[in-house]
Automatic annotation (TrEMBL):
Gene Ontology MF term list: pyridoxal phosphate binding; transaminase activity
Taxonomic superkingdom: Bacteria
CC cofactor: pyridoxal 5'-phosphate
E.C. number: 2.6.1.-
Family, similarity comment: Belongs to the class-I pyridoxal-phosphate-dependent aminotransferase family.
Claim: Transferase is one of the keywords in the record: yes
Keywords: Aminotransferase, Pyridoxal phosphate, Transferase
Identification of the protein by name: Aminotransferase
Naturally occurring in which organism (per UniProt): Symmachiella macrocystis
GO BP terms: amino acid metabolic process
Family annotation (SUPFAM superfamilies): PLP-dependent transferases
Length: 396
């Protein structure tokens, strides 16, 4: 069967592939210490589940408008006004099957062959793959551990050409956990306004911010930024709702309308029941978000303590999200657990899984050779056992 060239060259999501590999081992009866997937281990709060049940019982089990029901769009607008003082109209909001779907729609609606899309690196796996699907060219801007994996305004300015169509910012960042300092974000916003560049601001981890860091939504930072930003977010991470598949994009009505047109052809609408659950998530009590954040903060402290004790491993402390991203390159070319010798992060992850049954994701997938990503969206007991094994593997 002939498969199209663009799909032939599309790489499968590395995080999903790493999780599948771990699962394969688990299915053979092996106890695997799994730190690959970026999803909260908490169950969706009860009041949100109840709202979904009530929605079903009220008969909300039919097609909805393609870009989401008016009540949810309004709830999203109200949440941004409450949390960030931002005023959006429902016509500036699109609800999708998860933030990933909104990102795909945005790229498809705005990019074409010949365009360039600036991506600070390390980047979330899907960014480059989805840009390539449109035929546009990803332009990677490398950031370093020393800068906390934050792209500077100068780096951004230098990457802009007359072909630049979009810049994809992710704050806080998956995989690095980088939370941009407000001044750094302001400087980036200034460049975007001066050079008139559209920015996708993926703020899906905005509620998961730790002591010492502060979150500010990009459009609030500078006059002229609201017109040049498409905010992407969703309920997956903050409300432990990964499986419900509700995300959104918020930005200039013209772009949103184009994305909605595309979405109406791709998929009739996001799940009706999930949309009602998302209204409750946004309008209902918010204490659950802080309770989960506090739990992530405890795990983050533990992870940092364990990372500091690992031999010859370097990292920048994550200010947000639930990932630790660390450099293991010092261990390449020398025997690890089971006598395995590796020379890149992908082989490191394979050896670690086979020998120690610890599953991490290779930094190669995020454009960061030498690094590995550990998701601490898992309980402390598993983290402890995983770190004990990782430490033994490195010290063999
Ligand atoms: N953006 C980033 C940076 C993510 O890490 C993820 C999920 O891992 C998403 C978007 C997609 O989230 P959703 O579940 O809403 O599709």
């Amino acid at each position: 069967m002939k498969i199209s060239a663009s799909i032939r060259s599309l790489k499968p999501s590395a995080t999903i592939a790493a999780a599948a590999k771990a699962k394969e081992l688990k299915n053979k009866g092996v106890k695997v210490y799994e730190f690959t997937l970026g999803e909260p281990d908490f169950t969706t709060p009860q009041h949100i589940q109840d709202a979904a049940i009530a929605a079903m019982q009220a008969g909300h089990t039919h097609y909805t408008p393609s870009g989401g029901i008016a009540e949810l769009k309004q709830a999203i607008c109200s949440a941004y006004e409450r949390d960030h003082g931002l005023q959006y109209q429902p016509s500036e909001v699109l609800v999708s099957n998860g933030a990933k779907h909104s990102i795909h729609n945005l790229l498809t609606a705005t990019c074409e062959p010949g365009d360039e899309v600036i991506i600070p690196t390390p980047y979330w796996v899907s960014y480059s793959a989805l840009v390539e699907l449109t035929g546009a060219t990803p332009v990677m801007v490398d950031t370093t551990e020393e800068s906390g994996f934050c792209m500077s305004a100068d780096q951004f300015a230098s990457a802009i050409t007359d072909k630049t169509r979009l810049m994809m910012l992710n704050n806080p960042c998956n995989p690095t956990g980088a939370a941009y300092p407000v001044e750094a974000l302001e400087a980036i916003a200034q460049v975007a306004v001066e050079r008139d560049v559209l920015v996708m601001s993926d703020e899906i981890y905005e509620k998961l911010i730790y002591e010492g860091s502060e979150f500010r939504s990009l459009p609030t930072l500078r006059e002229g930024m609201r017109e040049r930003t498409v905010v992407v977010s969703g309920v997956s991470k903050a409300y432990a709702m990964t499986g419900w598949r509700i995300g959104w994009a918020m930005g200039p009505a013209e772009v949103i309308k184009a994305m909605d047109k595309l979405q109406s052809q791709e998929t009739s609408n996001p799940c009706s029941i999930s949309q009602y659950a998302a209204i409750e998530a946004l309008n209902g009590p918010q204490e659950c978000v802080e309770e989960m954040r506090k739990e992530f903060a405890v795990r983050r402290e533990y992870v940092l303590e364990r990372l500091r004790a690992l031999p010859e491993v370097t990292f920048a402390e994550p200010g947000g999200a639930f990932y630790a991203f660390f450099n293991v390159a010092a261990h390449f070319g020398r025997p690890l657990g089971g006598g395995k010798v590796v020379d890149n992060a992908s082989d490191f992850c394979t050896a670690l899984l086979e020998e120690a049954h610890v599953a991490l994701v290779t930094g190669d997938a995020f454009g960061a050779p030498g690094y590995v990503r550990l998701s601490f969206a898992t309980d402390l007991e598993t983290l402890k056992a995983g770190f004990d094994r990782l430490e033994a593997f490195l010290s063999a």
